[in-house]
Design brief:
Chain lengths: ~180, ~775
């Protein structure tokens, strides 16, 4: 067993894990963060995508011990105080969600993109989610959602301590969704 | 007088999206129960073999193992239409991937370790792999006891001592005479491989065997009530002793219809002393063990006049059912009555054979056989048009069903069916049909255009039923209870729109819980066949009407007027012409209380039901009858660019027209069309099982089985939704969810011929097959 201390969605977690435990198992089974999904277990579908120190990784291929001391961000850390991020709201508004099983991983891949490139081109958006499989939507609405979110979010200010969270310019652009 | 619609037709966003974008949505994959055990399987490495011996003693001794079951331990026959399948293989295995031994243990790791310690001795046998060979009398039998299997009589017709699980006949007119008089005849063969549905959530089920012979199940399923019904039959339990929960479902596409893993986890739970047992299929098991779309071999003959009027069509469809009949027999039935395309065909003869082989078994998949048969029919129509020297669109236009024509099962086509020719014209216009594609910049590329028609009706029992309950809350809001599942298609949002429209409530005040639970949500057959918005829509309409009746009755008493003088508007009720006296629903929802304390009425709970009407079984000898509650017609037009060096096909633009009757939610309908088209592109270009000569599946993973990614999007997609109302549809609507996928391969295949002048008869149109055919032609690219 190995002792690890990853910082997950802003909270430091202390745990003792077996060497073979994946980060996905750690998140889902130990922390009950079941938003990250397992669609294939071999890093081919992207449903388990989380951010490790701001970079998208497939959590089924990362060992929990590798996350020791690192910053892990999952879909559960995307909304703030119950308020959807502009990216999440764009997914709702664009009709980018059908069954929803790929959605958390898709949003985390998009978040990773917007963190490193707040104004991505369409090609860069496609490239960023090319490893996230979706069987329902045909991707078109997802591309629109990410494009719309990129237009709404501002770049983090230089030198700001938390550059991992692109701040929301406006998050009340919803035309519908939950009342 | 028609009132302007407030919600129906509008792009109301789905209200489960917030759960789904935050990770709060809980799927069966995410559920965990106190004391829950985890299951793992030993599956057959052989496509066909006798099980000589199973030694599980090592596994049973492993600490943490709570149950080990083999086929000898569970003698239960299962089957949707044909009871041909066991929970675990007994004596013989019939496909590679078939469950042989099941283990339940404290952890998944222990369960898998136990599986590794189980030794199964097999005596491999030659596998029956080609359904055309399997039909022959000398073929080895996948099910030697077929004649003794119980099955749905009068609907399915297995042939004893053969591999034929079902033979569907369509006979109309005099085909021999028509071909004898035909001036132009075309005969062509086509084939489709089996494919996987690939829901992003693999199959997952949890079951607990409870005291007193009860069963509680949580499952990733399209069919809560069908699971309950089939569990009840399989285990001899009263229906209300089986409780089925369906939480959020991560995609289904037909693969989660019927009964799947539920019996397996239930028998494991029984064997483990009633602890809940969970099984989640790995992606590899999803490919190898869970059902697929059947493969198909088609032979199609068309006879026409010189002027291009179809006089006869004859087709033979041989379905590769795999090891068990499951849904496959009904696919073979439904695709037969749709098996001539949306054309007026005076003389028609179709034989559709559903044939057992030693492959993973087939089931429903979005379109239910129609993508497969129309791959052949719509390619053959193009070939016929060229033979006649006619434009393929013009040839189709001359033969498409129009009011007064008769379908191949004897149904009269009316204006209320929709307008296939308008769909054709819409897509032709959208892709500038008739104008050749401009030559591509790169000399190694070729461009082409293609069109194809599609049609489909729900394939369902003649008595398919559905119900809904609406209950008003203390604040006057409404909760809808249904047991159809919204596994992504968006029907719950549409039902909320209908209820809000009818009850005159704001859309935010109408809610549907994402969980179905047979203990509380009312009966629905199952969520398949693009019939939920239609049937569920009717049920909700009627439940809302029932609520309004109860509200009016109380309000009429309060106001001292006749009930028909009560107007319901803005979440309140008032006497006609006196809106200032309105009583809000919140003061009526639980009953009305007078100022002096007297109360009348009671909680408003409305009930609505719907049952298929006027449907008949098809005549066993001729296939004549009324199989379809409604038909939905459509067309695709596509322009492609082929790279003659790599064989890759790029979709430049694709236009899809569907006659929806009435678009209930424009945004969701668009989502269904685009999602369906892209799924169809997968079937067209890449997807298909590959087997070796012994029947081993060679591509059971996303590494070797490619589905469309974001990189594969067409450059331009144009969804076009027509609105010729369905006379008996809710607000005039008919189902549209499966249809966008159907005939996408046909349109692309036709465009590929236009680009290269090569006839492709087999799917997928993979780079490998394109390059191979170009090389065979030997001509310069």
């Amino acid at each position: 067993m190995y002792d690890i201390e990853p910082r997950v969605n802003g909270h430091t977690e202390r745990a003792s894990v077996p060497a073979g435990m994946t980060l996905l198992e750690f998140l889902r089974d130990r922390l009950a963060l079941t938003g990250s999904k397992e669609g294939c277990g071999i890093g081919e579908c992207g449903a388990c995508t989380v951010l490790l120190d701001g970079k998208p990784v497939t959590a089924c291929l990362v060992l929990a011990v590798e996350a020791d001391g690192l910053d892990v961000r999952t879909i559960e850390g995307e909304a703030t105080d119950g308020q959807l991020s502009a990216l999440q709201q764009s997914f709702v508004d664009a009709g980018a969600v059908q069954c929803g099983f790929c959605t958390p991983g898709m949003i985390m891949s998009a978040r990773g993109l917007l963190l490193r490139n707040p104004h991505p081109s369409d090609e860069e958006i496609v490239e960023a989610i090319a490893g996230n499989l979706c069987r329902c939507t045909g991707y078109e609405a997802i591309l629109r959602a990410i494009r719309a979110a990129a237009q709404q979010e501002v770049e983090p200010l230089p030198g700001e301590p938390d550059t991992k969270t692109a701040r929301l310019l406006r998050s009340d652009q919803s035309t519908g969704g939950r009342p | 007088m028609t009132r302007e619609l407030t919600y129906v037709g509008k792009s109301v966003p789905r209200d489960d999206a917030a759960d789904k974008v935050t990770g709060a949505a809980r799927y069966t994959h995410d559920l965990s129960l106190p004391g829950m055990l985890h299951a793992a399987l030993v599956t057959s490495p052989h496509a066909a073999a006798r099980i000589a011996r199973i030694d599980a003693s090592d596994a049973a001794r492993l600490p943490g193992v709570r149950a080990v079951l083999t086929g000898a331990d569970v003698d239960v026959r299962l089957g949707l239409y044909m009871q041909d399948k066991r929970i675990l293989a007994h004596d013989v295995v019939r496909y590679q991937g078939e469950p042989v031994v099941a283990v339940a243990a404290d952890t998944l790791d222990i369960a898998r370790e136990a599986c590794r310690r189980i030794h199964v001795e097999y005596e491999p046998r030659p596998a029956v792999l080609d359904p055309r060979e399997a039909m022959k009398t000398a073929a080895a039998l996948v099910h030697p006891d077929l004649g003794s299997y119980s099955h749905m009589e009068g609907v399915f017709f297995p042939t004893s001592r053969t591999n034929i699980a079902h033979h569907q006949k369509i006979r109309k007119g005099d085909v021999d005479a028509a071909f004898a008089s035909a001036e132009v005849i075309l005969k062509a063969g086509f084939d489709n491989p089996p494919v996987q549905h690939v829901p992003m959530e693999t199959h997952a089920s949890i079951a607990q065997a409870l005291p007193g012979g009860r069963a509680e199940i949580w499952t990733s399923s399209q069919s809560p009530y069908t699971v309950r019904h089939l569990m009840s039959i399989a285990f001899g339990l009263p229906h209300n002793a089986v409780r089925v929960h369906v939480p959020y479902v991560g995609g289904g596409f037909g693969g989660k219809a019927g009964l799947n893993l539920e019996p397996l986890v239930y028998v494991l739970s029984k064997a483990a002393g009633g602890r809940p047992v969970r099984f989640v299929a790995t992606r590899e098991e999803e490919f190898n063990t869970l059902p697929s779309r059947q493969g198909l071999y088609s032979t199609i003959e068309i006879g026409t006049t010189r002027a291009g009027t179809i006089v006869a069509l004859k087709a033979t469809y041989v379905w590769d059912a795999g090891a068990y009949a499951d849904y496959g027999v009904n696919v073979g039935r439904a695709a037969a009555y749709s098996g001539a395309g949306p054309y007026a065909i005076p003389n028609c003869w179709i034989d559709s054979f559903v044939v057992y082989t030693n492959k993973v078994y087939g089931t429903a998949y979005r379109g239910f056989g129609h993508l497969e048969v129309l791959w052949g029919v719509e390619r053959a129509m193009d070939q016929m048009a060229r033979k006649l020297g006619l434009d393929p669109a013009e040839f189709r236009r001359r033969n498409l069903l129009k009011p007064g024509d008769m379908t191949i099962t004897g149904e009269t086509f009316t204006a209320g069916h929709g307008e296939p020719s308008a769909c054709l014209d819409a897509v032709a216009g959208a892709i500038d049909w008739g104008t050749p594609s401009p030559p591509p910049v790169e000399p190694t590329k070729r461009r082409g255009k293609g069109i194809a028609m599609l049609h489909k009706a729900p394939a369902m029992p003649t008595s398919t039923a559905c119900s809904a309950i609406i209950k008003l809350d203390e604040d006057g809001a409404a909760d809808i209870l249904v047991s159809g599942v919204d596994y992504g298609q968006g029907t719950y949002t549409v039902l909320r729109q209908i209820a809000a429209e009818e009850l005159r409530l704001p859309i935010q005040a109408v809610h549907i819980n994402s969980d179905c639970d047979t203990a509380f949500t009312p009966y629905d057959w199952q969520t398949v066949a693009s019939r939920f918005a239609y049937m569920g829509g009717h049920a909700v309409l009627r439940a809302a009407g029932d609520c309004l009746g109860q509200i009016r009755a109380v309000a009429a008493q309060v106001f001292g007027v006749a009930t028909d003088k009560i107007v319901c508007e803005n979440a309140s009720a008032y006497p006609a012409g006196e809106p200032e006296r309105a009583i809000p629903y919140r003061d009526l929802a639980l009953g009305y209380t007078y100022p002096n304390g007297n109360a009348i009425g009671g909680p408003v709970i409305g009930h609505g039901r719907f049952i298929a009407h006027d449907l008949t079984h098809l005549d066993p000898d001729t296939g004549q009858g009324r199989p379809a509650q409604f038909w939905t017609y459509g067309a695709h037009g596509v322009e492609i660019e082929v790279d003659t060096e790599t064989g890759e096909i790029e979709i430049l633009r694709i236009a899809t027209a569907i006659d929806a009757g009435k678009v209930l939610n424009a945004g969701l309908a668009r989502g269904q069309v685009i999602g369906g088209v892209v799924q169809g592109i997968g079937s067209a270009l890449w997807e298909g099982f590959r087997f070796d000569r012994s029947g081993h599946l060679l591509n059971p993973s996303f590494v070797d089985y490619k589905i469309p990614t974001a990189k594969d999007l067409p450059r331009e997609m144009t969804p076009i939704l027509l609105e010729n109302p369905q006379p008996d549809g809710p607000y005039g609507a008919r189902g549209i969810a499966e249809h966008p996928m159907i005939s996408v391969p046909s349109a692309i295949g036709n465009a590929l011929f236009d680009a290269l002048g090569i006839e492709f008869a087999s799917l997928p149109l993979s780079p490998e097959s394109v390059v191979t055919r170009l090389a065979e032609r030997g001509a310069e690219p």
